[in-house]
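Amino Acid Chain and Its Fold in Token Form
===========================================
Purpose: to set a sequence beside its fold so the mapping can be learned.
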Amino acid sequence: MYSVLIFLWAFAVAYSRIYVGKHYPLDVATGIAFGFLTGWFAWWCYKQYGVPKESPLEEEREERIL
């Protein structure tokens, strides 16, 4: 639900920038593309290099607590 609201808010801001003449449409489209690519790259890095749930470091920490 929140993700839909965030996208609607971002669309409204992008549209308003064009409507009031502050930015050209290509400026806004480039910003949208850059945002999507940056978000996708961050997600990809997290999936590739994130710490797995069952790592040896996590097991050592649990042993010390017990």
Summary: The longest helix spans residues 25-49. The chain has three helices and no strands. The radius of gyration is 20 Å. The CA atoms of residues 18 and 26 lie 10 Å apart.
